[in-house]
User: What shape does this take?
Amino acid sequence: MSSKTVRPAPALSLDTRGWRTGRGISLTVLLTVLVAIAWPSVSTLFRFSLAQEHYSHMVLVPVITALILFVERRTIFAHVTTAPRAAAALFAAAGLLWWLGGCYTASSSENDQLSVKMLAIVTAWVGAFVLCYGVRALHTGHFAVLFPLLIVPIPDAVLSRVISWILFGSAEVSYLAFDLAGVPVFRNGFVFTLPGFSIEIARECSGIRSSMALMIVGLLSGHFFLKSLGAKLALLLVALPVLVVKNGVRIVTLSLLAAYVDPGFLTGDLHRHGGVLFFVMALAILGIAVRLLQSAEHSRAEPTQATGPETEQNL
Assistant: This one.
């Protein structure tokens, strides 16, 4: 027999340097050009984020996106290509959305116009990423690449429904808590009459800012700490009632303190700045949910690992 020297297969070249490569520089240039083209809309979004509570989270979205890309760069940029056709399709879709944002929504509110235009900008950003890194990198890093969708303003009709749902749920939780506490209360819609005063659960009590923050924390927690799609969806489903319970607990706590301790609690610092305490409570509940879902995932994985060696021995 003739002996042959077996050479090892060449290792795959991993492009893990991200922003230091020519592709990273190209993406940076493309993003800069896109921001410059859409600067009027981008500046409006920034101005709204400083003035309106349901926009406040948006200034952090690009920063969080960059951090995720950096942390997961070895996985996302392991296999990169150039996909001009897919990128061209995304750029065309972005252009169409931008045109619709300026034409067919001309009679809409400024928020709705901005919503369509920011969706166009994010679509163009995805197109730039695909052009520089390819479809496979998009599939691997889809969470980070699509995370900027959170800068797209919620349309007015959807936002009104969300706030109405939060207010209704908060009122139901509050009424139940008053009943369990044995507090005499008369309810007329969103107005609660307690001994000595009345309170109204108004739109300002929806806690939309903390609700958005909690949903973002839920998304990030699911991505980093959970593996299965089912567990991640379950975490988001848990976050929805937590939003309502958090609001209800805050309303009842302030009302009871005002009724039995000092009426000034309804207008004091706890009312104006105490939201962070109840937000921490909601985070704690979300953290417990993450731990329980992790345990469930681990329990499902153990039988598979345990039966693997036995199956091999039987074979």
